[in-house]
């Protein structure tokens, strides 16, 4: 009887070990399959940021800034007066030159002048972004760029929005790597240090998304570019 109990324990132990090994094998196979699938169907990177085309707002004349009616985050419409300068010795007929107007419908993303500052025509007092022109710049390994082309679908995650997903399409693939203009890097013994170069890829959000005021320029992002259609 004693030997029967020992045999049962040994048999159960063998079954448990076998079960653990099978479960581990299933997990490993699943992980490998997922990695292979992701590598075949997607090019992915976490090295990406939100950006937009920025427009400078500048004065027409020299003079002290008397008023600035706008703060970062405010929306403006084209030709709206957002600031006013001291006209100095200019005749009253030139009053329009002292008014600083918004060049586009946009969002004030950066103020670069304050009331009391002395301005000149080459001075930028604010940066505007078109709320509908936000896009992603993703830096992709040079070894993956041959798989990219215009119009490929992209899944986008923005750190600011957690698990919320956005969609877009590849707009263009850069023709110059990030470090193209930097001098070559060498080790202490004079050997060339070869590193994988990053190529900027522009990703335009789908027009179906309501993007107005949605993002902050510089937000970190992650992208998955579908390079193979099922």
Automatic annotation (TrEMBL):
Keywords: Coiled coil, Membrane, Transmembrane, Transmembrane helix. It holds the Pfam family Beta-barrel_YknX. The keyword Chaperone does not apply. The chain crosses the membrane at residues 16-37. The keyword Membrane applies. Residues 136-213 form the YknX-like beta-barrel domain. This is HlyD family efflux transporter periplasmic adaptor subunit. It comes from Clostridium aromativorans. The lineage of its organism: Bacteria, Bacillati, Bacillota, Clostridia, Eubacteriales.
